[in-house]
Amino acid sequence: MNRLGVFGLVLLLFASCSREMRMGRKIQKEFDQNPIFQQAFSGLIVQDALTGKTITNINGDKYFTPASNTKVTTLLTAMSTLPDTLPSLVYEIHGDSLIFWGTGNPAFLDDRMEWDSVTYRFLAENELPLYFCGSNFKTTGLGSGWAWDDTPYRFSAERSPFPIYKNVQGGKPFVYTDSLLAQILTDTLHKKVDALDECPLPSSRSQKLKTVLADSVYAIMMQQSDNLMAEQLLLMAAEIKAGYMAEDTIIAYAKKHLLAPIHVYPKWVDGSGLSRYNKIRPIDMIAMIGYLQKTQPLDRLKTIFPQGEVKGSIKEWYPPYVFAKTGTMTGVHSLSGFMKTKRGRLVLFSFMHNNYLPSSKVYKPEMKKVLALIWREW
To answer: Where are the domains of the chain?
Structure first.
């Protein structure tokens, strides 16, 4: 390259850097002058997806309680681990009996999804006596750090090896036992189901009944911020990797094999984000969303993530170019996702706010202003 060409390249790089610095200063000014953001411990990372360059970094390396932003971590783990069609159960035929185990799949008899007639018919029309085995469920119904006074509410439904009717009866979460599941299945299938007190784990001769498209479950988890879906997907991933359902096994696997390679180091204890023990940085959220963007078709992610004015938890709050996951609990509000700007540039962002007193509704219009600025000018 001649000297003129080198000079031109230097000018181009300088102009690019100057543009990023100018945009970063505008966002920083908007952020710093907003009194709402100053009432909380707040962070914001904005990154250009094509170049990987950070446009804005405000407390991006500090740890926050993410609430349901944790579901992005669960989505990454599930997409990296689970098949495109999820198994609803595992079964073996022993003599004149059919023994079946759950896989953790949360979709059975969930009225928000397409009717799982395959699983229903497989159990209801089977001529063999049915025996349920819960030996591969090696965790607790409630997660570590969940609030005890949330337990009566639908959003805190118990985890189980074979979820049914969203693990809710009469509008209230039920306390799961294998015998209760057998009773509910007996009433639902109009066929006797017994629960085994002692039984082995599924063996190499076990077969899996695959019935539910994974993306349909991912979409409900992300768009409706469904906690049970998130918890069960994490347990399904554990069952795939370890042969039994326990969140600590799959979290340890994911941290080592999926997150560490992209330099993400969270404090992570559950699939849903119900626990305040979870801690993660905005920069970690950017790394995970960036990984998803590089490993999955963007159109697929768009069908799964909530979308402003169109679907999910951000429908009423943000414009249609925003695709992002919310995370909200008392004193916590997060929004992490991606958008294409007016000039067609793909941008990744993570807003996180902790330790504030007003409603999260106060924060959403102010965050919308910042995202609109980025959309217009980047």
So the answer is: 23-78+250-377, 86-213
CA distance 124 to 128: 10
List, as one string, the DSSP characters of 49-67: TTT--EEEEESTTS-B--G
pTM above 0.90, yes or no: yes
Fold of the CATH domain 23-78+250-377: Beta-lactamase (3.40.710)
pLDDT in tens, the chain (378 residues): 555 455 554 444 455 568 888 888 999 999 999 999 999 999 999 999 999 999 999 999 999 999 999 999 999 999 999 999 999 999 999 989 999 999 999 999 988 876 567 899 999 999 999 999 999 999 999 999 999 999 999 999 999 999 999 999 888 999 999 999 999 999 999 999 999 998 999 998 999 999 899 999 999 999 999 999 999 999 999 999 999 999 999 999 999 999 999 999 999 999 999 999 999 999 999 999 999 999 999 999 999 999 999 999 999 999 999 999 999 999 999 999 999 999 999 999 999 999 999 999 999 999 999 999 999 999
Helix 70-81 and helix 214-223, axial crossing angle in degrees, nearest 10: 180
CB-based contact 313:320 (threshold 8 Å)? no
Residues across the chain: 378
CA distance 44 to 331: 17
Helices (H), 296-355: 298-304
Reading across the β-sheet that carries 193-195, which strands appear in turn? 193-195, 130-133, 97-102, 85-94, 207-213
For residue 146, the 8-state DSSP code is: -
